[in-house]
Design goal:
The chain is of the alpha+beta class. A 5-stranded antiparallel beta sheet has the order 7-8-9-13-12. Strands 3-5-4-6 form a 4-stranded antiparallel beta sheet. Residues about 695-710 have low confidence and may be disordered.
Length: about 700
């Protein structure tokens, strides 16, 4: 007992560094994605009694992760943990389960030489994988749950295929995978076929073991068949609506680029041959075809991925490859190490040189580990360091950010090809890095999450909006009915033909509404990002309603009478000339030029009526001249003023009525301001108009003000 305890402690200590590495990489790659919130809205509607729908009353299966949705709903109902909080940690739990299943597989695999070394190497290959780390939190998606059930099924078939309980566990695992992802049945079929052949090899009989096959297949067929029947009775379709929305036609050229990029970045070009070596060795030694099952699953799935053109997310569908391939690849390394140690060429190199099999295997393992993890690791950290940027689909490695990588043999060629593939896939939104999804989701959360504090019953029951990017903003606007412009939750859009050739497509974003469809449905509402003030709200939309403490809802509508009728009982604010007059009050302009500029309290209000968008595009400048130039910061004293610029995107209001308004609060500097200059200038720095006035914070704004010639 004491020896076993010591041995277990040693094993734990050897494995802990790998687990710590995975924990670190996963923390760097921790993220939520906008797409996950589509499923979260289905969860919310289910718990609120509307059913598994995106819009109450519209039965469209705009999700493809049935079991994941039910699990999140159960957690929210039983524990009160919302999906956006529960999903990442549920994914972490399935990550732990995946690693445990993988190690159990190695620990129980019969006739395995150097078992501890194989387990250590397999764990290292998985934990050093940046791609595996990315999907540890899963972005809130079901990716790691699917991986867990596939690995568990393979482990059960490998170890317990002679046991009815083992076959039942494998069948239930495959069924759970099929209920988690639509490609689950695709992977179940080769498992059943492999079992028939492997069982004949085990028994030496030339015909299938039908009883055992029924034990394996029957639970899967019953559960998955029941789900298909339920789907058809509930939604009226045999397949989820997401299939019709995303699958336009075969797209082999994109799928090839996607898989080729994955092979270079994650080392599939090494893992698959090593797994094949192990497969051949075990089949010769013990007629064990587990390695063949792994390669069969990977091969079938690769054919599927190539046909659909890859995926919007970086290597998400391939997630189960790494734990499945890690075990036979490690066995292949150990086998080659043993052959090298027993070979004659070492003795020819040095007659007295004797090297053990473990040492040779370890020496082989190091370059395999490096070449399977280095490129993806460099991309992980290069992307993770980028913040506040959305358009970063094309992350390139070069001497500036990966000189250490390019110094290794063969890496310049591999990196060059990888960079080129990334450029090609980026144009069609294929394999977008997790950092892009993270930053987009973070921006959406900052923008739309305040709506969770909105009062109930604000949005009219007959309000209907059309939009893309369904996730976060409509999760926090659960009462608003939406038509997805890309068809995920709309059956009509999902089936509208796509005429563009493949080289002009963008994966998962090809569908568009048919001509006149939005008008036919009666789209009448466009909600904007929440605002903290009336002015800010009316800067974003034509209408605004206060919906909570310091929370305003800006919105637009093509039907003014509908707005007036639906919001008759609320303090509706409308952007019009009367509103502009209320901003400026009885004050007169202190500058009259291309724009009229008013000083109201401590803010400048710029008004142009009539106005065009072109007039608002040039940048505004604001220069503040102090009473004593010595009060300025040292780097400003040589100019004699303090100043800054502001532009259309942050301060300007443009309305359909042809009115432009901008507002800029004067900074509360510690020194007294003598003169204020303001105006606009072109991108070349040429002033379009300018004006100035004397300013004293101690006098009333109505005192005489000096105005420069604006031209």
């Amino acid at each position: 007992m004491k020896e076993n305890a010591i041995q277990n402690t040693r094993v734990m200590l050897l494995h802990l560094p790998w687990l710590a590495l995975l924990g670190w990489l996963s923390s760097v790659a921790w993220f939520l994605c906008d797409d996950a919130f589509i499923s979260f809205r289905y969860v919310r509607n289910l718990l609120e009694g509307h059913g598994l729908v995106f819009n109450p009353g519209e039965y469209v299966e705009g999700y493809s992760n049935f079991l994941w949705v039910l699990e999140l709903a159960a957690i929210w109902w039983a524990l009160g943990v919302a999906p956006e909080d529960a999903a990442p940690w549920l994914s972490v739990a399935f990550t732990a389960g995946t690693i445990a299943a993988m190690l159990w597989w190695v620990a129980r695999l019969p006739l395995l030489c150097h078992r501890g070394l194989v387990a250590w190497m397999a764990l290292g290959l998985v934990c050093a994988s940046a791609t595996f780390a990315v999907w540890t939190s899963g972005g809130g998606l079901e990716t790691r749950q699917f991986t867990f059930f596939i690995v568990l099924a393979v482990m059960c078939l490998s170890l317990y295929r002679d046991s009815r309980r083992g076959l039942l566990a494998a069948s239930l695992s495959l069924a759970a995978a099929a209920l988690t992802r639509p490609e689950g049945p695709l992977l179940a079929a080769p498992c059943f076929g492999w079992f028939v052949i492997q069982r004949m090899a085990d028994t030496g009989r030339p015909h299938p073991d039908w009883r055992r096959l029924i034990c394996l297949a029957a639970p899967f067929v019953v559960l998955v068949g029941a789900h298909f029947l339920w789907r058809y009775s509930y939604y009226g379709e045999w397949l989820p609506n997401t299939y019709y929305a995303k699958h336009v036609r075969p797209w082999y050229e994109s799928g090839f680029r996607y898989l080729w990029a994955a092979a270079l970045e994650t080392g599939l070009y090494l893992l698959i041959p090593l797994a094949a070596v192990a497969m051949r060795n075990r089949w010769r030694a013990s007629r064990d075809g587990t390695g063949a099952l792994v390669l069969l699953l990977v091969g079938v799935h690769m054919a599927y991925v190539m046909r659909v053109g890859g995926d919007y997310f970086e290597y998400r569908p391939l997630d189960f490859y790494w734990p499945l391939l890690a075990v036979p690849a490690s066995m292949g390394i150990v086998y080659l190490g043993s052959r090298i140690a027993a070979g004659r060429w070492l003795r020819r190199f040095s007659p007295r040189l004797t090297v053990g099999a473990r040492t040779c295997a370890f020496v082989l393992f190091l370059p395999v580990l490096f070449y399977t993890s280095a490129i993806q690791g460099a991309l992980l950290f290069e992307g993770a360091a980028i913040r506040e940027r959305i358009e970063m689909r094309n992350i390139q490695l070069d001497d500036g950010n990966a000189a250490w990588l390019l110094a290794m043999p063969g890496m310049p060629m591999l990196v060059a090809v990888s960079n080129d593939l990334n450029r090609q896939t980026a144009r069609q939104l294929v394999a977008s890095p997790f950092t892009e999804h993270r930053e987009f989701a973070n921006k959406q959360l900052r923008s739309w999450k305040p709506y969770e504090n909105m009062e109930n019953g604000v949005i009219p029951d007959d309000a209907l909006m059309a939009g893309g990017g369904l996730g976060i903003r409509f999760y926090y606007l659960p009462d608003l009915k939406v038509i997805d412009l890309h068809g995920l939750t709309d059956a009509t859009v999902a089936r509208n033909p796509v005429e563009r050739p493949n080289h002009q497509r963008q994966i998962a974003h090809d569908r568009r509404p048919p001509a006149g469809y939005l008008e036919q449905r009666g789209v009448n509402f466009i909600i904007r990002k929440p605002a903290t003030s009336e002015f800010q709200a009316l800067g974003r939309a034509e209408y605004a309603v206060k919906v909570g403490p310091a929370l305003w809802m800006p919105f637009d509508s093509p039907d003014r009478q509908w707005v007036l009728d639906r919001f008759a009982g609320r303090d509706l604010r409308v952007f019009d000339r009367d509103y502009v007059a209320s901003l400026t009050g009885d004050s007169r302009p202190i500058i009259r030029s291309d724009w009229d500029v008013y000083l109201v309290e401590d803010s400048l209000i710029y008004v142009k009526d009539p106005c065009s968008p072109e007039a608002a595009e040039p940048t505004f400048f604001l220069h503040l001249y102090p009473v004593d130039v010595n009060d300025l910061p040292s780097h400003r004293q040589q100019h004699g003023f303090d100043g800054f610029h502001f532009d259309f995107g942050t301060h300007l209001l443009i309305k359909k009525g042809g009115i432009c308004v901008a507002i800029q609060k004067l900074p509360d500097y510690a020194y007294a301001i003598a003169t204020v200059r303001t105006g606009q200038f072109t991108g070349e720095g040429k002033k379009i108009w300018k004006g100035s006035f004397t300013y004293n914070s101690l006098v009333d704004e109505s005192e005489t003000l000096h105005v420069d010639n604006p031209r």
